[in-house]
Amino acid sequence: MEVTAGRFQLVTRDAGPFALEKLKGVGPKIATRLKERGIVDQLELLLYVPRKYRPIYRHFPGPELARRKSAYIECIGQITQVKSPGRHSRTPLEVSVDCQGQSFRLIWFNMNHRDFIARFKPGRWMHIEGGVDHDQQVPTLAHPNCKSLAEPPAVLPEPTVSIEPIYPSIEGINDALFAKAIAQAAEHLLPQLVEIVPAPVLARHGLSGVGRALRTIHLLDAYSDLDFFRAELQGAKDRLVFEEFYTLQLKMAEQYVSERRAARAPRCTERDLGRELVRRLPFALTGDQSAAIACIADDLARRTPMRRLLQGDVGSGKTIVALMAAAIAIGSGYQVALMAPTDILARQHCRRTQEFLADLPIAIDSLTGSQSAPERRAVLEALAAGATHLVIGTHALFQQDVRFKALGLVIIDEQHKFGVAQRDLLLQKGEDPHLLAMTATPIPRSLAHAVFGDLDLTVIGEKPPGRKPVRTLLRTRASAAKVYQYVRERIIETGEQAYFVYPMIEAGELETTRRNVLQAAEQLAQDAFADLRLAILHGRLDATTKDAVMQRFAQGEIDVLCATTVVEVGMDVQNATIMVIESPEVFGLSQLHQLRGRVGRGSQESMCILLSGELLTDDAHARLTAFGATDDGFLLAETDLRIRGPGQFLGMRQAGVAEFRFGDILRDSHLLEEARQDARRQILGDAAG
Ligand code: ADP
Ligand code: MG
Predict the structure, then answer these.
(1) Residue bearing the CA closest to ligand 1, atom 17
(2) How does pLDDT run across 291-322, given as a tens digit for each residue?
(3) For residue 460, which of 131, 288, 400, 446 is within the disulfide window of CB 3.0 to 4.6 Å?
(4) How far is 654 from 652, CA to CA, in rounded Å?
(5) 654 within domain boundaries
(6) pLDDT-derived band of residue 67, with 50, 70 and 90 as boundaries?
């Protein structure tokens, strides 16, 4: 299921290789420098695009040149004054020139002053070329190129504008060399470029060929009208972005098809068990939940395996949707595996499911890493024999010795916590089983399409009714005592419960600013919360202890749960209404949102208090403020994506897929969407959307 973007590359009819050394002006030394920067051949060189473009104004009247903002100019002028400081002075050498009534100052640093005196004499005519700095009183050119003229020009040349590309600098290679090398590569390679995007698609979007776009980007044709060039350039850049997106989406569409080609998926059409489950629910399903279930039921009834991603903000009620899917598969005679990323979550699912499915003819088992050998053996046997219908577990599920009699559906909760390979290991335990992946990290749609282009997407947008937004407060450690006092009173008054979350288990050797759960909990127990029931939960506790703590917290036997981010995903205790996050500045936005999602799950008013350090970086400050300003997971995800970029946002596992050379998932989301639709149409035929 993994689709790796790799680096987008041009394709030519002739396979190459197109060695850099073949280019005039590129010797072994330059070639080595280019290769060090990843420009390994001429095709790569063509994709090395300018960092910016510089207009050069030539021979416009002096006053007009002086007005051009940060421009590069060429003009002819007469020297009016030469200021040469003493031999050893560090002040620059300075020359004033007059160009048709406009004065310019030319300056040089570290120049041999004897040569200088010889070259520049008042009254002499000069040909001058350089960049103008407007910050000075008199427009100033630092280190311009100057040539003396023997006599004043009879007529001044015509005014013209031209544009030059400026490439990201590589030591020892100037722009002129880039231009020369690229022009040669272009002449050789552009005529034999293979167009990946079919002509009708290009025509529909009014896009040029890739070769044409590259000519514009490298300025291989002259432009004299700046505005016209800018418009052309935008079109050319979009064209490259489209090419990049289209190439990836084509691969994804192919993947999509090949995964569904197997028409041997178990057809699950029996709905009675699901209906029975709905009847027992203590609440009515939301519209989005029902729609998601209908979609999934439809998929499950087909011979092509379902590959669906269910997205919904924290607390939107994805679990019940998953259980409905499970009920349909089990009712139809198949087994279901539900995989969760942590022991705690797997156990909670197990308990919850047992409540929901009580008295229904469904045999549930759990499989986690912390079971005893005999326990584990018993579960494995029941699974292999088909006696267990629904198995809920962690990574323990995809181990080699786990076998199913008839695995029909794989459900992965918090799928972003798993690698694609792990998902596939579990899928291989059945014959083309269906897959339902769930995520509570809402990923902006454009990104989801880029990364999960081979999955169908269902979004739960609404939350169950009656939920009040979580009030979020930003406080610093200076007010910690007040916050503790407030929390204590509220707990005593209402009988509600609180989470306190810390980034670390114990004090680190180097890290002194991050709060840790062991120390903090001890302090709270002795001091602010001495009369409350307090417990600690973190990943290093053994499974039985974790389980017991969870159980007691869920049953209201613990007032304050001091924990690490092990509570980040999935925990669902409706009576817990207070979330205090200590050292929140070390967490990313999405993670903070996940943590906050642990409260606000019932009908009471909930609150989330961030207790940050006193000194925050600008970045951290921006993040916490954005977090305080909204409760909308999709909005936060987009902000997070903007702040951190796709690679970091998605985490290491999926980073490669989201790294584009030219495209930007946020900025170019419309191009991504178009490329996706076109690529899918190309592969799947006209029916695909
Ligand atoms: P998440 O999408 O974060 O996994 P859960 O599935 O854990 O959310 O659901 C959050 C809580 O909302 C649970 O306690 C669940 O029982 C409850 N819930 C789910 N659907 C509804 C609904 N339609 N009406 C009321 N409560 C619901
Ligand atoms: Mg969940």
Answers:
(1) 317
(2) 999 999 999 999 999 999 999 888 889 999 99
(3) 288
(4) 6
(5) no
(6) confident
Residues 525-537: tens digit of each pLDDT: 999 999 999 999 9
Residue 441 has pLDDT above 80, yes or no: no
Q: What does the alpha-carbon distance between residue 640 and residue 398 come to, in Å, rounded to a whole number?
A: 32
Degrees to nearest 5, angle at CA 74 with 72 and 78: 130
Pocket test for ligand 1, best of 277, 281, 283, 574 (most atoms within 8 A of CB): 283
Distance CA(117)–CA(113), nearest Å, equals 6
Helix axes 272-280, 318-331, angle to 10 degrees: 140
Pick the atom of ligand 1 nearest to 284's CA.
23
For ligand 1, residues with CB inside 6 Å are: 283, 285-286, 289, 312, 314-320, 440, 464, 572, 574, 601
Nearest partner of 590 among 416, 346, 412, judged by Cα: 416
CATH number where 296 lies? 3.40.50.300
Q: Is 617 part of any domain? A: yes
Would the pTM count as exceeding 0.85? Answer: no
In this structure, the answer to whether residues 371 and 317 fall within a common structural domain is yes
Protein residue with least CA distance to atom 16, ligand 1: 317
Which of 140, 164, 188 is the last residue in one of the domains? 164
- Residue located nearest, by CA, to atom 20 of ligand 1: 317
